[in-house]
């Protein structure tokens, strides 16, 4: 079961969903829009080695935006802290970002039950595209669980 927009608002107000900061205007029919934080990170040396820490470079997104390029993985985060002890949260791209050729994650689109925080985004683009701090970048949905969590 996925929560409707009205249920998301009700559950945020009841404290069952964390959405901070919360803007009711960002609640859709069955999701909550999240926005892009003003910092991007890219790896500064390739190839990557999964057994080691890989150095990164930080990019502040200026007010006029920043052009993302294909062939680069951009690590970013949401401004909002989002999650729940009661619902499993999924984060997906918005259709508008998808139509612009932006993918917001490679694999990590689901938050564990009980986790809340700013979401790490693994952004890639299919062609050069401008992005802006504070733009709507994704949408969170909340799914009911059945049974007691085992951990």
Beta-strand residue fraction:
35-45%
Order of helices and strands: HEEEEEEEHEEEEE
Query: Number of DSSP helices?
Result: 2
What global shape is seen? globular
Report the count of strand segments: 12
Cα distance, first to last residue?
A: 21 Å
Which structural class should the secondary elements be placed in?
A: mainly beta
Mean pLDDT: 95
Structure description:
It is globular and about 45 Å long. It has 151 residues and is mainly beta. The model has no long low-confidence stretch (mean pLDDT 95). It is 9% helix and 42% strand. A 4-stranded antiparallel β-sheet has the order 1-6-10-8. A 4-stranded antiparallel β-sheet has the order 2-12-7-9. It contains 2 helices and 12 strands, in the order H-E-E-E-E-E-E-E-H-E-E-E-E-E.
Name its key features:
2 helices, globular, four-stranded antiparallel beta sheet, 9% helix, 12 strands, mainly beta
